[in-house]
Amino acid sequence: MSRTDLLIGGFTAATAVLIVVGSLEILPALDHRPLVSDKFEHVLAYAVLVLPAAVVRPGWLLWLVPVGLVLGGLIEAVKLLKGGSELVNDLVAAAIGLVLVSAGSFTLRCLVALMRNDLRLPPDLADRLD
Known about the structure:
Blueprint: H1 3-24, H2 38-56, H3 61-81, H4 87-116, H5 123-129
Transmembrane segments: 6-31, 43-71, 91-112
Protein name: VanZ like family protein
Keywords: Membrane, Transmembrane, Transmembrane helix
């Protein structure tokens, strides 16, 4: 495993721990008044979870996005047991964060490859764009 892989894995694991601690309010000192909506916080947290892998190791997204969804589901299930009521909404917000970063990084990589002429459009599509 390279140093980059260890760095990305460590950052992702640390982000996952922060998401769990922040979401389950394990440390009372972290109780806060959000500056933005709760759903936006979910989108942002799960986007940050996959951002390093999406930029540097996009192949990791094949397993990291499902793991992120499972993590979000487990957190929401525990919150539901503690008396929470927004299981579906929070899970959808987490999924949006994961998908936004994944799709955005894929689109950006395709655009960069097109600009470098590394990625060729199929001839029928290229004819339609001309």
